[in-house]
Structures are given as structure tokens and as C-alpha cells.
UniProtKB/TrEMBL annotation, chains A, B:
It comes from the Bacteria. InterPro entries: DGOK, DGOK_C, DGOK_N. This is 2-dehydro-3-deoxygalactonokinase.
Amino acid sequence: MNQPFISLDWGTSNLRATLVSAQGWIVGSRSAEGGVMAVKDGQFLQSFNSLCSDWIADHSCPIIASGMIGSRQGWVEAPYVDCPATPASVARSLTSFPLSDRVTMHIIPGLRCGAGTRMYDVMRGEETQIWGADVDPDTICVLPGTHSKWALVGEQSRIRKFATYMTGELYGLLTKHGILGRLMQFGASDHEAFVAGAQLGLDDQSQATHVIFAARTAGLMDEVPPAGLPDYLSGILIGLEVKSARERERIASAAEKPVTLIGDDSLCQRYETVLRLAGFQSVRAGEGATVRGHIRIATEAGIMERASA
Amino acid sequence: MNQPFISLDWGTSNLRATLVSAQGWIVGSRSAEGGVMAVKDGQFLQSFNSLCSDWIADHSCPIIASGMIGSRQGWVEAPYVDCPATPASVARSLTSFPLSDRVTMHIIPGLRCGAGTRMYDVMRGEETQIWGADVDPDTICVLPGTHSKWALVGEQSRIRKFATYMTGELYGLLTKHGILGRLMQFGASDHEAFVAGAQLGLDDQSQATHVIFAARTAGLMDEVPPAGLPDYLSGILIGLEVKSARERERIASAAEKPVTLIGDDSLCQRYETVLRLAGFQSVRAGEGATVRGHIRIATEAGIMERASA
């Protein structure tokens, strides 16, 4: 008897569900805006059912979920697993609970690193994408976003360490709520302004909280037009991130190999530009990294073997 | 005939008016929350009159104003003067216009530096405070705030160059609108958390957009209690600023002398702590630097001489 499973990519602002066959084929996928932050009063089961109840009725299959759904604000907290971590080690640490007699929910833990150093770092969901991208040993994976992650992946897909950069969140805060946004005109793209900002961020990376002020002064002095200022700031912030990440010791040691970019197409394009300016080569991971990561962890956890037994 | 003048410290969120005698004594002072951002439809004259009309009726005296009132969003734009700048050079570049037959308004220009470098920087109002503080040659003045300024002051109070750090604005954005604020409990102070944050910011200054994420992970890992997280983040941001400013070439060259702190008492205390951690000595400027700066510029401009003629 073949039995599929349901893959849930359940982040802060979105929920994406994919029905995967026992052979690892994608049978169907759906998404909803019911991210973790949109779920009121812990009504996670209801959110899940409203998207997937027919799949459950048809298949009574297990579910594997990753992302903020396993955070303290999520459905059930899935405690962090310390780096170095592999699909196998995480598969042994799933947080599993029954939704019914026949249906079990498995939440993939997030990863933690930095114990004993100056600061901890954490990720939830990106580990699954990295494993789905199935990169060569000693690769740096970059996952641009609200909280960008730079991860160093070793042998056997071991995530050795990683660092978070609050690039996307800073961009959002500074443009939506801050003084920098007041001179800006949104909606256009300006590649030249983006590159100029990126070069400034790369050159002056050790002056981060100073150099972002350039997105005001370049506007005041008419060096960058209002419609170019959003991209100018975006360039500065990504430049700061890329140069900072490049200077981290472990990350720099693998810098001769191409970096693997995992994420949204337009964001990856921005990072490609800045990585090139900084002297990094890059390649893109294929689409569907999250589902492939779920398949990999489900296999390691014996969920797919059990399903096809 | 003795004639006083009115000193206006008119910033983004506050307006402070001081009546100064021709001998330079403070006769009275008042303030209102009618900062530049609170004035609707260019009603600056009305805002001014509602605070000072009796003084004008009694004295018909000139007015000297500094701060954002001279910005593009202010009453009349007072074009920037380039560094190096002195009270004398600025006194020659006042933007003056009549409010009536007998009353003239003089707006002090802001300063600009960085022409020909990677970025311009600007200040409006802080130049007046620096001149009011009347520091020794080759002193670094630090003016903590929403947009902190670090200025290098040479002979004859010449402001040679300066740099802005968006420390206060970042703190506000990250705590009020960002994910870091979600784990925080506000209202308490936690000196230990502040010092720990400052040390992290000082140590890891070249990783600014990464290290601020510690204000999330330290909360998640229960290293800092929720009530300590605001001060932890404040420490990180001030630590980043102090270390960055210290590394700027011209600023570092004067680092053996005490830094002069100009500003709000509680903010200056925070900076004293972090400056000490970073190996800087500091002293405080006396109260009333803005009014003393206005007196100095009024004297250079001949406004006080004319008044006492």
C-alpha cells in the first residue's frame, strides 16, 4: 500500500501545503495566508484543516512541518537542535503528536548555534531548505529574506554554523516607519542606485549604523532621485550583509567556492549582483527546496519507509 | 538702549524659546510640543506667535533659530554650509527674513560635510550646541540622540568633520515595530543587560546587522530576561556606534583627549558607560549649550552689537 504524506511550510506569514506521494512525487500543493502570526488563539488545527481536510480524509497520512510553526508562538514548540546538525540528527528529534487515531503531525526542530560564543543564533525552516537544496560539502548557503541566513554546510549535509542578518526587517522598518522613507518614492526599480548603495555598504561595512544615513543625505543632496532611494537603501543593507558575512572566519574560509542562493527569485537576483561586486561566485538552488527537504527528513525518520511498507 | 533677542531651538518634535537680554542673560524660557513635524500647512508663524507674541509685543526684538526649522520641511530652508565651519562663517550665512517692519527672523544653516567622499553627512542644530559648549581645540563632541553626531572640533571652534549614527532611530524602530520588541517588557532598567549588550556591540561592531539579532536570541535562550532586553538592545546599538566612531580615522586621532558629551542626562549616562568600556574618557558639556550657541552666533552676526548700539 502506497501512502503519501503532507509537507507543510508554515512560516510567519504564509502556510504552504504539498501532498507528496510515497514515491516522492508532488501530487498537489496549496497555500494560504494563514501564517503563524495570523492564527488567533492557537487555532492551528482549524487553519490546517481548512487547507488540508480533504487530503486527510482521503489518505489519513502523516504530516511533516517546518518553520515558525515550531516556535514558541507556533502550534507546539519544537526545541532547537544544536549545530552541527544533519537531516539524520534532526529526524531523531522531531516533535510528534497525534491529530487523530491515524494521523500524526511531525514538527521539524529549528537549529541553534553559537553555544559558548558571544551570541546564539537560530533558524527555523531554513535548515529544511538547505537540506532540500542538497549542496556539495563545504558550501555556503545564503537564504535572503527578512532575517537572512548564511550557513556553512559540511560533509553529509552537516550544517556546521550559520549567522542571521536582519537585512529584510531593517529595510522594512527604515522605509515604512523611519525618516529614510520620507524622501522615498516607491514602486520603481533603479539598478544604478542599487549598485551604488551596495558598493557603499561593501566599502563601509564597519560603519553600518552610520552608512545607512546615506539613504537620507543622498536624497537631500539630489545624488539619488526619490524613486531610486528604496533600491539605494536595499543595496546598502545587502552590501553590509555580504561584506560582514564574508569577514566571518569560517564563512570566509569557504569563499573560493560558489555560494548557493536559496529563495525568492527577485531577492536572489539582488544578492547575485552584490555577491558579484564582492567577488563571490554564486549559483541558485532549484525550486522546491522545502518539499525536497521534507522528503529527505521523512525518509531519515522512517516516515516514508513506514508509509510504503 | 538695550535690546534682547529670542533664541529658538526648533527641532523635529519640540520648540523651545528663550528670551536673552542684550547682556546675554536668560530672561525667560518656554517650550511647546510644536516641533516641525507637528506644524500643519506651514503655519510656523502661528506656532511661533502662540509661544512668543507677548515677547515680540514688548521688545520687537530679533529672533535666532536653529534645528530642523531650517530644513526643507521647516519654515524657510536655510542651505547647508560646508565643513570646516565656524560660528563666524555660519553667522555670514544666516537665512534672514522679516516677520514685521521691526522684527527679523534669522535661521542658522545646518552643516554639511563629506563632499567628494563616499557620502555626505548633515546636521541641523547640533552645530549650535557644539559652539555653545565652547570646547578646547581638537575635541570630539558626541551628541547622542535619534541621529547621534560625532564631531571633530579644531582651532577656533572649527567643526572639521562629523558623522551621524542612526542609533536612537534604530532603537525606536526595532523595539516599537520589529520582531525584537515582541519578547521585550518595557519600563524597567537593567544595567547588567545594558553592559552585556554594549560589550557585544563593541566586540562585534563589524557585524552590526547580525549582532542586533542577539536581542532576540538572548531572549529566546533566557540569557537576558524580558525586562532586560530593551537595555540589552540599547547597549548593543550604542556599542556599535562607539566602536564604529572610534575606528573612523580622524576621530581616532583625537582619542587620547576626553570626549565631550552634549545632551540629555540619561542618554549621556548611557554613553559614559559605553565610552568607558571602549577606553574613552568623557566629560559633560554644561546645560544650556543651545542658548549659549545662539548668543555666540548672534554676536558674530552683529545682532547683539546692533541691539546694544
